[in-house]
Every structure is written in C-alpha cells, then in structure tokens.
C-alpha cells in the first residue's frame, strides 16, 4: 500500500507512522523537515503545504493509494489538497477534530458521529469547512473520503495538558505536593487517548473500504472526570493531586487570553463514542495504552527533552492558587 502522509512529525502523526510501517506500507512523508529526520522505512519529501502552487506541482505526476492530510486547518489548504490529489489517490483521510461538534451534549451523554456539527471556535469552524470541501470532492468521484475526529491526544513529544491550558506548570506543582486549580466541581467529563491508539485507527482505516465516505471519532472508551484525570496523572508521578475547586468563569476572567482553552473546550463535557470506529476498524478495539502508564511515559519524555515547566517560573499561576485559597475555595485530595 502506497501512502502519503502530509505532515508526519506531529504527535498523532508519530503514532500513524509507527502503525503504517508496522503494516508494511510504502510510506512517504511531506513536510518542511524542521522537526525530525525521516523514520527508518519512510521517505520524506521536503516542502511547504502553504505554498500551494509548489505543493500541487510536486504531486502532479504522483499516484498514491492513500493520502492522509494531518495539517489541513483552513479551507484554502483543503482546496489545494483537492487540486493536488483529485483522481490521483483512491482514498483521502482527513484529520478533523471532535471540536466540530461544539459543546452541547446528547441525552445519551456520549457524542457519536450523528451529532450535529455546532462548532464554537474558529479552529473548529475551519475544520468543518474543510470537511465540507473534501465531502464535495468525494461526492464528485475524485476520491473516497474518510474523516477522523480525534479527541485530546497525548504521548511523548508534547506536554500533557491540564484542564486550564496546553503547557502548564501544573505537573511540577503536583509532583512537589503543591495545590493546583480545577474548574467547577471536578466531575466534568473528558477523554484522552494515547497517540499510539489514535495512530492505529488512521493506519488501519487506510485502504479499508468500510471507512469510505464516513466520519469517525478516534477515541479510547475510557471517560474520565477531571478528578479522575488529575488523580491518575498524579499516580504517574507517584503522588496525590491537591485540587482547589474554582469556578471556570473566575479563572477565565482573570486572564481570558491565557485560559481560552478552558473557556472554549475543557469547561464543557467532552465524551465521545468510539463504537462506529471499532466496528469499521477492529484493530482499534485491541489493547490500549493505560492512562497512568501513558502519562508516566509522557512526563519522562518531557523531562528528557528539557521541556518540563517549573512552578517557580509562573508567578501568575501561583498567585491565582493563593487567591482562590484566600477566598475560601474548597481544596480536596484527588
């Protein structure tokens, strides 16, 4: 199977590469070669997908069984992908996001692929627009389309998020026994899936006709509360998490720009069904990475890369914790 992966060096892409090579795929990566060298068994074409004429010209005479677009975030990029690969690939797999569903939840709690798309952020609205461009191309017979909507993905190569933001001093505070902020009552729902599990879905959706012209949530089955999440992340650090329960609006109001992630996403439930994905790609139902093990692996990698953030370097966060405690916010041990 001849596969082109547009991207190939990011968090999810790393998991896809591992699984595709494990399948014996003939793998080509297209990226700017700025992050890491080609993995053994893959070939890298150096280029910039944001230079559309060069991007399209580079693939004018190429043919692939599957093209996986991991770095398409805007309609103009989707249109360039269509022009580059219409009639030149049997299948296009597009990495979208569960953020396309917005923040409403169904009566069944878990959001499945029939849930209406009601995005609330520019990022998600652009992903919906890209989905629509690819769907029109697929309906016109230019390729079969598979849309993949991952939830939060974690693993080596990126910091483990907390509820407030993407790259935080929280885990250093947890490791040192210092209190950290948790929004609301801590029982909001969340899903985090290791990059190897998400990558396995992409890799085994490739060339799989059961995934053609369909959209899938690529998530693990485990649904956390945020109390669960902090408790198990703390276990990966061989400690307990001391949580200070604060209203989400209070945190956002202190610094709306810094805490936009909390405001737009994590203050709401984020729980998704993977039943459809497992039915189409049985490999997704295999053994998954346990969160404590995956968090321990992620923390070790962050420290090894010198990317571990020390709590002493974030006076603003320390001041917010102190203010919350001063104002009588509840503190619990997760």
What is the compact description of this entry?
With 334 residues, this protein is α/β, with parallel strands linked by helices. It is built from twelve helices and 14 strands. 37% of the residues lie in helices and 19% in strands.
General description of the model:
With 334 residues, the protein is an alpha/beta fold. The protein folds into 2 domains: 2-153 and 193-218, NAD(P)-binding Rossmann-like Domain (Rossmann fold); 155-191 and 221-272 and 290-333, UDP-galactose 4-epimerase, domain 1 (Alpha-Beta Complex). 37% of the residues lie in helices and 19% in strands. The protein is built from 12 helices and 14 strands. The strands form 4 sheets. Strands 3-2-1-4-5-6-11 form a 7-stranded parallel β-sheet, sandwiched between helices. Strands 8-13-14 form a 3-stranded mixed β-sheet, with helices on both faces. A two-stranded parallel sheet has the order 7-10. β1, α1 and β2 (26-31) form a beta-alpha-beta unit. α1 packs across α6, α3 runs parallel beside α4 (122-139) and α7 packs across α11. The chain is globular.
Main attributes?
three-stranded mixed β-sheet; UDP-galactose 4-epimerase, domain 1; seven-stranded parallel β-sheet; single chain; alpha/beta; 2 domains; 14 strands
User: Would you tell me which CATH topology of the largest domain applies?
Assistant: Rossmann fold
What is the number of independent domains? 2
> Can you count the beta strands?
14
Give the terminus-to-terminus CA distance.
47 Å
Q: Helicity level, as a percent range?
A: 25-40%
What do the pLDDT scores average to? 95
Order of helices and strands: EHEEHEHEHEEHEEEHEEHEHHHHHE
